[in-house]
Amino acid sequence: MTPDFWHERWQRGETGWHLDEINLHLQAHWPRLGVGTRGRVLVPLCGKSLDLLWLASQGHWVLGVELSPIAVEALFRDQGLTPEVTEEPPFRRYRVDELEVLCGDFFDLSPAHLVGVEAVYDRASLIAFPPETRGCYARHLMEVLPPAVRVLLITLDYDQDQMAGPPFAVTSAEVVGLFGERFEIEPEACLDVLAENPRFRERGLTGLVERVYALRPRG
After folding, report:
1. What's the CA gap between 53 and 46, in Å, rounded?
2. What is the pLDDT of residues 41-90, one digit of tens each?
3. Measuring CA to CA, which residue among 47, 38, 42 is closest to residue 10?
4. Nearest CA to 139 among 107, 163, 96?
5. Taking the CB of residue 76, how many other CB atoms lie within 10 A of it?
6. What is the CATH number of the domain that holds 144?
7. Are residues 58 and 121 in contact, defined by beta-carbon separation less than 8 angstroms?
């Protein structure tokens, strides 16, 4: 998907991926990653997710990356927060205490932006990319991350012929193909969630599986 696609979705308010609650998988499985209390956590393609606030409430330093300024400004405004805003090309940085968000293109991230990052939380990033560009996302992520990072990854899997993404279907085999060389991939949960997502049934799905993985560095 092009940047214009996502800008237009935010401008039109077509943000069905946004949840008005903390993700239950995050709360249930995050502690198992063993990230230090003050560990720095990267949340790519973060939107205005309340999950960033939950991570900060656990004592982490949280770094979100989001393309849309509409989303970033809504994140802070909705919480009654006034961030310090600085221009740091190619990003605009918003920061309040332990929470900061880089507004700009994920693919402009460099290792210098991620110094000190100990973990990644990916609920809506991998599944936002179609198959032809998903590998680019995964490669860039691994190129810019410090070596010992752990990842909590949440994906959706369904018959891609029944519905055009986003969100896109990602199989377990593809997760292994994308990340298996660098990480030990530990399945944490596998749930049938179609009944909880009527909007996907309306789009034609007859099955929808949500999977949670913990990715830990090899060696």
Report:
1. 11
2. 999 999 999 999 999 999 999 999 999 999 999 999 999 999 999 999 99
3. 47
4. 107
5. 18
6. 3.40.50.150
7. no
- Give the separation between CA 66 and CA 71, rounded to whole angstroms: 8
Which residues have CB under 8 Å from 110's CB, separation 6+?
A: 144
Report how far residue 64's alpha carbon sits from residue 46's, in angstroms, rounded to the nearest whole number: 6
State the average pLDDT for the chain: 92
pTM (two decimals): 0.93
**Do 147 and 42 share a structural domain?**
no
Question: Count of domains in the chain?
Answer: 2
Determine the Cα–Cα distance for residues 100 and 66; give it in Å rounded to an integer.
11
- Asked if residue 160 and residue 88 are part of one domain, the reply reads no
* Residue at token pair 């968000």: 101
Indicate whether 46 and 67 sit together in one domain.
yes
Q: Do the strands 183-192 and 117-122 form a parallel or antiparallel pair, or are they unpaired?
A: unpaired
